[in-house]
Amino acid sequence: MDPEPEFHLEFRFPNIWQNHISRKVRIVAAFVPVDEENTVLYLRLYQSFLPMQPLGRLAARLAIPYTLKIAHQDCRVVRTQEPRRSELRMGEQLLQADGPIVAYRRRRQELIEQAARGRR
């Protein structure tokens, strides 16, 4: 089994991303929906390059402005995205690299259908 690459993005269904920036730094993002069109983003930085806890906490705090800057750049892209809602099948021409998008949408659709059956 090949080791995971130093940099990779891990998705944990339904709403957690772990951005492994290096073997010693990762950012965890939780996307928490508050209604049909709005989501709150919670970010947390983890590091292991500074083993002394007070220094590690300081490094995490110093990284907050940079992390927020990147999140705000992404936010502009998300706000202008069309269509606003995504469905499992939308007539898009997705590529092999879009596999995680399809997997997410498929699982989301399964959960929606399960919830609908449970309400009957």
Description:
The protein is of the alpha+beta class and 120 residues long. The chain folds into 2 domains: 1-85, no CATH class; 90-120, no CATH class. Helix content is 40%, strand content 25%. It contains 2 helices and 4 strands; from the N terminus they run E-E-E-E-H-H. The protein has helices spanning 53-79, 99-119, and strands spanning 8-12, 16-22, 25-33, 39-47. A hairpin with a 2-residue loop joins strand 2 (16-22) and strand 3. The longest helix has 27 residues, at 53-79. The N and C termini lie far apart (45 Å). The model has no long low-confidence stretch (mean pLDDT 79).
List the helices and strands and how they pair.
Elements: E1 8-12, E2 16-22, E3 25-33, E4 39-47, H1 53-79, H2 99-119
Antiparallel strand pairs: 1-2, 2-3, 3-4
